[in-house]
């Protein structure tokens, strides 16, 4: 054969075996939806305000226990001392005790908030009077609580540390039948401090019940 015929034969197609590469998905802390800014389940890319969402995955991986831990990972929000007995955030330079919400309802009380029953925390930065009414001009911090679902949940955490710190949390839940689901979150903590005459005693219990009479209706009951 001539050189041209040899080159033409070398260009013939060769089918190689198919190689499939798989890998587990990496964990992500990205939230794509939020109900805080608009009171509707809206993609964050369509919300015309600055919103930071601290997800359950980040709360667990960073072992966050209180609102101060969340605020440290929220841009534009700082932590002031608050007299050591209450959460006192500074949102874009403005401090107000009326900036805390739970499931969209005002939580205007001076105490240290625990995350034992919190699914995620959403910080809305900027003026908010149209949606939330009274409050500081810096923004709001809305906590979304865990709720009962038909997925089985079984989780117990134990903690021990310096200054005689002891803490236990419990999270259990499941569907009772096709229309009713139950969940229970609780915490018990006791600790001394690096300062004399200072101690911490904390307990909480939060049962929730979800009733689904139809595919379009959810009735959610909870008590803390």
Give descriptors for this structure.
five-stranded antiparallel β-sheet, 10% helix, globular, mainly beta, 224 residues
- Roughly how much helix do the residues carry, as a percent range? 10-25%
- Determine the number of helices (DSSP H or I, runs of at least 4 residues): 4
CA-based gyration radius: 25 Å
Order of helices and strands: HEEEHHEEEEEEHEEEEEE
Sequence of strands across the biggest β-sheet: 3-9-10-7-8
Alpha-carbon distance between the termini? Answer: 89 Å
Number of DSSP strand runs: 15
Overall morphology: globular
Q: Structural class of the secondary structure composition?
A: mainly beta
Sheet having the most strands:
5 strands, mixed
Mean pLDDT: 86
Low-pLDDT stretches are none
The percentage of residues in β strands lies in: 35-45%
Oligomer: single chain
């Amino acid at each position: 054969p001539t050189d041209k015929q040899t080159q033409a034969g070398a260009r013939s197609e060769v089918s190689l075996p198919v190689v499939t590469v798989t890998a587990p998905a990496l964990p992500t802390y990205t939230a794509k939806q939020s109900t805080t800014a608009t009171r509707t389940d809206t993609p964050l890319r369509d919300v015309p305000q600055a919103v930071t969402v601290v997800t359950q995955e980040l709360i667990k991986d960073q072992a966050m226990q209180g609102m101060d831990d969340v605020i440290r990972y929220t841009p534009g929000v700082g932590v002031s001392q608050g007299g050591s007995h209450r959460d006192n955030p500074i949102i874009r330079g403005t401090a107000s005790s009326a900036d805390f919400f739970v499931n969209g309802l005002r939580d205007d009380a001076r105490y240290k908030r625990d995350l034992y029953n919190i699914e995620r925390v959403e910080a809305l930065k900027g003026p908010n009077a149209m949606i939330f009414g009274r409050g500081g001009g810096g923004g709001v911090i809305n906590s979304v609580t865990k709720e009962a679902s038909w997925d089985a949940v079984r989780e117990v955490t134990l903690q021990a540390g310096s200054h005689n710190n002891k803490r236990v949390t419990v999270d259990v839940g499941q569907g009772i039948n096709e229309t009713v689901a139950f969940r229970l979150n609780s915490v018990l903590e006791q600790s001394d401090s690096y300062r004399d005459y200072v101690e911490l005693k904390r307990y909480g219990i939060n049962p929730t019940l979800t009733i689904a009479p139809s595919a379009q209706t959810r009735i959610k009951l909870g008590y803390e």
